[in-house]
Amino acid sequence: MRRSAILLLVMCLFAMAAKADQITLKNGDRITGTIVKSDDKILIVKTDFAGDLNIKWELVASIVSDQTLHLALKDGQTVVGTVKTEDGKFDVATKETGEVKAAKESVAAVRSDAEQKAYDDQMYRLQHPHLTDFWSGALDTGLSLTRGNSDSTTFSLAGKAARVTDRDKISVYTTAIYTKSSVNNVSSVTAHDVTGGIRGDLNVSDRVFVFAFTDFEYNAFQHLDLRNIIGGGFGYHVIKTKDTQFDVFGGGSYNQEYYSSYFLAPPDDTTLQPAITRKSGELVFGESLTTKLSARTSLTEQLSLYPNLTDSGDFRAKFDVTANTKLKNWLGWQITYSDIYITNPPFGLKGNDQVLSTGLRLTFGKGTF
173 and 311, same structural domain? Predict the structure, then answer.
């Protein structure tokens, strides 16, 4: 009875081995396991003795597999069936067309049934994404402190999120800066500015896109309660590579500005300036750049110009540039410069607001940031 049990166990082991995939390397070594997937660089094999093995695809000489594999060829075809290797070519026994031979050099990917299903699901999701899919984002923080004859605290916060697919892009962004100073125990706020907006880009072709946006701004020391811009137009991807994208765009916008009443600075601090409401049409011109300077450092930059159509000669300009160096996948160090300029500020006020900040960047998601 004991001998029969041992014989049955040995037969089971042989049966399992017979069903296992066999990978022969160019140096003659053989590996037994289950093929999971491969691209044209790495073949992943699940083994009982060493877990998942990553084997360089260039070292593989032959494959024998009784499980159904999906071979994606470089010409776009996919061949499905069991695989053996004869005369240096993969011989795939398909159900539909019988045996199909494929040179190893023509194979772009190999996937098991489970991996092929996961790949198909991913491709479908890419072509039919939900609104909640593919979001990534970044949170930039900056803090500056001075202590002594005068005390000051400056805090900046910028949030960005984007959902990017092959067809479109949705961007949400906001920036806030706040400064509080104290001299001779008298405290005052010396900077308080908040901007934000939403933009959508839709690719009409590989190079041409259309866009629409709405931006908001609040600036306490320009007495700006609200600036709201609604606009859109067309753009062109001048450079569109894996590491660099450079776009130019143009269109039109409608600008609404609401300024509250205020007193001028001393010695004219008794003169009350009235509240102002301005509404005007604008043109929109600009360019944006996103590029990798190195494996860890990236640069983003955008310049937008808004010539005023209602009041000829006036215009607005907005410039932003950020350099970010990754410390970890989720953590980086960033430095940001922003400049918002208007030619027609309220009487007695400056039309230029500049911010230079540096600090940590926290990121989530993959791809965009």
Answer: yes
> What is the model's pLDDT at position 80?
94
Instruction: Tell me the sheet residues that pair with 6.
Output: none
Burial of 332 (C-beta count, 10 Å sphere; 0-12/13-18/19+): buried
H or E element: which one contains 117? helix 113-127
Claim to verify: residue 104 and residue 217 sit in the same structural domain: no
CA–CA separation, 357 vs 177, rounded Å?
9
Half-sphere exposure of 174 (CA within 13 A, CB side): 7
Question: Rounded CA gap, 64 and 102, in Å?
Answer: 14
Tokens read off for 283: 């043109």
Handedness of CA 142, 146, 150, 151 (dihedral sign): positive
Q: Which residue segment(s) compose the domain that 80 sits in?
A: 2-126
Residues 106 and 83: their CA atoms lie apart, in Å, by: 15
CA distance 354 to 301: 15
Q: Domain with 154 in it: what CATH number?
A: 2.40.128.130
Q: Is the domain of 246 the same as that of 288? A: yes
Task: Dump pLDDT digits (tens) for 264-278.
Answer: 777 666 788 899 999
* Residue owning tokens 């791809």: 367
Residue type, 168: D
Give the CA angle between residues 43, 45, 51 to the nearest 5°. 135
Q: Which two tokens stand for residue 313?
A: 């000669």
- Tell me: do 62 and 142 sit in the same domain: no
At residue 17, the pLDDT reads 43
56 Cβ contact list (under 8 Å, min separation 6):
41, 42, 43
Angle at CA 185, nearest 5°, toward 183 and 189? 60
- Whether 122 is in a domain gets the answer yes
Instruction: Determine phi and psi for 93, rounding to 5 degrees.
Output: -90, 100
Quick one: pLDDT at residue 11? 43
Q: How many angstroms separate the CA atoms of 124 and 299, rounded? A: 32
Contact between 143 and 163 (Cβ < 8 Å): no
Domain count within the chain: 2
**159 domain residue, yes or no:** yes
Tell me, yes or no, if the pTM score tops 0.85: no
Instruction: Report, as ranges of residue numbers, the positions in the chain whose pLDDT lies below 50.
Output: 1, 5-18
